[in-house]
Amino acid sequence: MAPPTTRATPARPAGHILLYLRAVTFVLDILTGRSALSVLVPFALFALDAILCGLVIWKVPYTEIDWVAYMEQVGQFVSGERDYTQIAGGTGPLVYPAAHVYVYTVLHKVTDEGQNILLAQLIFAGVYLAALSVAMACYWKAGTPPYVFLLLILSKRLHSIYMLRCFNDGIAALCFWIAVFCFQRRQWSLGMLIYAWGLGTKMSLLLALPAVGIILLFGRGFRGALRLAMLLVLVQVAIAMPFVLVNAVGYFGRAFELSRQFFFRWTVNWRFAGEEIFLSAPFALGLLATHMALLILFITTRWLRPARVFSPASLISRIVIPIVTRLESPFSEREETLLSARAVTPQFVLTSMLTANLVGLLTARSLHYQFYAYLAWTTPYLLWRSGVHPFVQYGIWGIQEWAWNVYPSTPISSGVVVAAMTATVGFVWWGATNEYTPALPEEKPEAKKR
């Protein structure tokens, strides 16, 4: 009897493998921006996040932190109080500039003096989605690939800040992104007006001001930048006028209080340092010195490179001395034209402003949870611009998101917060250089000129 024969398993058709490879290539092309369908990714993610916002409001209980205090404070403003030192709520005195008062006065009226919490949450969902759409537009204008956009909608903490807390940081962050959007499109006056309003809502937007100054100097020239700086000041004076006329010292002392005492129990970033170090004057001065050093490093080796400024010495001789001693432009008319045309790209604007913002957050004395509104959409772009592998981008974002969702913060979570920001600053300084190519021709030696 013949032994039974076994059928050989047919080899997998090569066509199936080829089809699989084509599918993978198709998806990768979309995610990396090489497909015509890539443009649909931000729209799809935005629609998904709009649904998520509705689910958050529907399913997650609202948590009261500052909303009642905001309503109490603006209630006193509505009742006629104009002395800033006399305005206070359940969490303490009013410590934000005047635009905050005006924004929350509108919310006070439309939410039945703050009683209609659901309507307030829906309004802040709209603010969140508006900020998201503008941030996505800024990312796209700067050439960011679609796979980075996914990180913009995944933050649990960010949804909480907007829709479950109704913090004013959401309003300020929206103004920040609109200002970036305008500057990328060279709409200088409108951008400065929006930035000024955001600064008048919360002074956290001061962190980006060094980069804004350089962007305007390059984009509008010295005189144009000076006029826009005056516009910034005039907006702050105008919105403050009802309070300044009553108690100017009280207003500026409260609205822009730089000597505010920070409480260790609320810190997200420096808990691992210990309370004694956190509260010490040398620690505060060290952070300030680090902030200044990092700004000088980025200003001289990155942001001013288009103007061929490569060191602190050239910064002083080339930029500071002409402006401070003679109040004149450090550039000729031809140089201003070249800088405006060549240097101020959408990528230059976004990278510089987000870097300045991140440097300020890294060296801040104390970050509270609501400050994540300024960080959550900063990290994905800067990690991409740094050129690190996408796995590293997602990894750093992931541990950062984890750390900001630990409540209360711990020495480990606060260490991760600082480490993630430090790594991002280092990576972006090292890798984001294309947007800082010199835009001015190299000066010839005097001997050659003759």
TrEMBL record:
This protein's gene is called: ALG3
PANTHER family from the UniProt entry? DOL-P-MAN:MAN(5)GLCNAC(2)-PP-DOL ALPHA-1,3-MANNOSYLTRANSFERASE, NOT56 - RELATED
Q: What is this protein identified as? A: Dol-P-Man:Man(5)GlcNAc(2)-PP-Dol alpha-1,3-mannosyltransferase
According to the UniProt entry, the coiled-coil residues are none
What is the protein's membrane topology class? Multi-pass membrane protein
| Catalytic activity field | an alpha-D-Man-(1->2)-alpha-D-Man-(1->2)-alpha-D-Man-(1->3)-[alpha-D-Man-(1->6)]-beta-D-Man-(1->4)-beta-D-GlcNAc-(1->4)-alpha-D-GlcNAc-diphospho-di-trans,poly-cis-dolichol + a di-trans,poly-cis-dolichyl beta-D-mannosyl phosphate = an alpha-D-Man-(1->2)-alpha-D-Man-(1->2)-alpha-D-Man-(1->3)-[alpha-D-Man-(1->3)-alpha-D-Man-(1->6)]-beta-D-Man-(1->4)-beta-D-GlcNAc-(1->4)-alpha-D-GlcNAc-diphospho-di-trans,poly-cis-dolichol + a di-trans,poly-cis-dolichyl phosphate + H(+)
Enzyme class label? transferase
Membrane-spanning residues where? 39-58, 117-140, 161-180, 192-218, 230-252, 277-300, 412-432
Q: Which GO terms label this protein's molecular function in UniProt?
A: dol-P-Man:Man(5)GlcNAc(2)-PP-Dol alpha-1,3-mannosyltransferase activity
Q: Which family does it belong to?
A: Belongs to the glycosyltransferase ALG3 family.
Does Flavoprotein appear among the keywords?
Answer: no
